Structure formats: structure tokens, C-alpha cells
Amino acid sequence: MQFIDQARIAVKAGRGGDGIVAFRREKYVPAGGPSGGDGGRGADVLLVADSNLQTLLDFKYKRLFQAIDGRRGGPNRSTGASGTPLLIKVPCGTEVRDTRTGILLGDLTDAGDELLVAAGGRGGLGNAHYLSNRNRAPEKFTEGREGEEWLLRLELKLLAEVGIIGLPNAGKSTLISVLSAARPKIADYPFTTLVPNLGVVRRPSGDGTVFADIPGLIAGAAQGAGLGHDFLRHIERTRLLIHLIDASSSDVLGDLQVVEQELLAYGHGLSDRPRLVSLTKIELVDPDELPGLVSAVQEAHGGLPVLAISAAASMRLKELLSAVWQQLGIKEL
């Protein structure tokens, strides 16, 4: 299945039904008078969050959504049927914006959330509405109103509490595969991960916390370089970031700065988001050199604690998870 996290769609609500001109013709009603009914209301268009959907792939093939019109009124003051609302299912975590102005119309985060994106047109009035003492046989009626029509931009932002970030080949996919049941593609070349991967990591209490593995960032990602810029939006909702740095890199401190600068350049508060910095692949580093490496990264990171782990060798992962639970305010049993 393709991972599609952006889409543009057009929605058009139903047109209201027309009112009609009619008069009562019963045999024993000599002054029957006007009896034209009102038109029904046009159908609304609503977006509904569905937990069974993971991407916006459906909107790649269908981009126009049009609701049905209301029915015209009938005789004997019968009101026409209103249109049944058109429900469009989207994944949880979908933001909806007006394409022309960029204004945020709604954010559907929880399953069952609904957002009215186009209101149906009001039905027209039948001639029964225009009966008066001065006009006992009105022949006036009104047509139904057109429904609203909008161009929308949908953006999916994954709902994960913890985001794993770092340069390409830093070991992000390996870490999430070890901590959870997720099985992303893992290889020894950059940009193996082309789309975000989600994994559920078991908490000490027994329930799960969602981790997101974000494709690798490179210098200039916030301005559109590489793959990571397309997915930076997916860590906007996270409560905590885990910044992985390859301990076997020739420039560990440089790698740290590249990602930190991209978070700052992207904005949206990511540079202020709580995060854990962790050296990975420590099995490839001389044990005697590791303490000095950790100290150098810690100093460059403002003196904050720096972890050292190996996902491939399952080394010190309990310490990493303990730090995650502590940051999220989750008590260990």
C-alpha cells in the first residue's frame, strides 16, 4: 500500500429543492387555497475520522465529492426530501485546510470525529408561504439555494507519542523493529526508509505507546532537501523525540548539529520539543573511546544526559525505555 499523506479534493454540497406552486382541488373544499410545499435541504458534506485508515491513498483516485440534491416540494404542503449527508472517511490525524487561504478548518484526531466542510443549500419555499389577506391565490415560489463548494487540502500527521529522528542510516528502523512488532525495511545504505513507520511499544503498565520512525534528515531538509522534509510534519504531534546518532560516524558532533539545525529551521516548536539524544551502534566503537564520545556529545548538547545503545545487539535498551517513560510521566512498575 502506498503511503500518501497529502491530498487535494473538491467538495460540493447538495442544492436545495425548489418550492412549487399548487392549489387544493378537493371536491368539498371550495376555497382550497395554495398548497405548494417547500423543497428539501441539500445534503451536507462531512469528513469523518476512521481508525481503520492509515493513509490518504483513496483520494489519489477520487478527488471530487458531490452530495445529492434535495427534492422539490409536493402538493398538499408536502416538503421535499432532504439529501442524506455525504460522509467521507479520512485517517485519524488528518488536518483540513482551505486550499486558497490555507486556513485550518479542522483537525480530526480521534476516531469518530466529524467536520462539516460544505453545508447543503436551503430548500425553496412553496406558494403556501405567500398566502396573505391581500393575496389569496399566490403563484409565487422560490428556488432552492446552491450548496457550498470548497477546495480542500488534506494533510495527514501521524499520531505518535514518540518520534525517532536522525540522519540516514542512524539505526532508526532497527531500533523500532527491536522495540516493537514493526518490521520496516532495513539495509546498510542511506534512505532505506522511504515512509514513516509506526510501532507500538509496550509500556510497563501493559498498554502501548506509539513510536514513529521518520525517514532520515539531511542538511537542508527543512527547505526541501532529501526525503525527511516530506515527513517532518509527522513529528509535530509527538510529545518526545529520540535523536539517534551513529557512534561509528566520522563526525559525530557534526551529525548532531545537522539534525538540531533542521529542527530549528522547520519551526513549529520542534526545536523546543523534549528529546533524548542517544548514540547508536556502540558495538562498532572501541569501548575505551565510548565514554569520551558520550562526554563530547553531552557537552555539545548543553550538558543534558546522552544515552549510548545498540539496537542490533540489544544493548542498554532498557535504559533508553526507562528514560522515555520518565519523560512521558509514565511510572515503571
Descriptive account of the structure:
- The protein is an alpha/beta fold.
- The chain folds into two domains: 151 residues, GTP1/OBG domain (Spo0b-associated Gtp-binding Protein, Chain: A, Distorted Sandwich); 167 residues, 3-Layer(aba) Sandwich (Rossmann fold).
- The protein is 15% helix and 23% strand.
- The protein has five helices and 14 strands.
- The strands form three sheets. It has a six-stranded mixed β-sheet, sandwiched between helices.
- Strand 10 and strand 11 form a beta hairpin.
- The longest helix has 15 residues.
- It is rod-shaped.
- The model has no long low-confidence stretch (mean pLDDT 85).
What is the mean pLDDT?
A: 85
* Structural domains: how many: 2
* Count of extended strands: 14
Low-confidence stretches: none
Total DSSP helices: 5
CATH superfamily of the largest domain: P-loop containing nucleotide triphosphate hydrolases
* SSE-based structural type: alpha/beta
Describe the largest sheet: 6 strands, mixed
Note the gap between the termini: 38 Å
Q: Provide the CATH architecture of the largest domain.
A: 3-Layer(aba) Sandwich
CATH class of the largest domain: Alpha Beta
Give a quick rundown of the structure:
With 333 residues, this protein is α/β, with parallel strands linked by helices. The chain is 15% helix and 23% strand.
What key attributes describe this structure?
about 325 residues; alpha/beta; Spo0b-associated Gtp-binding Protein, Chain: A; Rossmann fold; 6-stranded mixed sheet; 5-stranded mixed sheet; 14 strands; about 15% helix
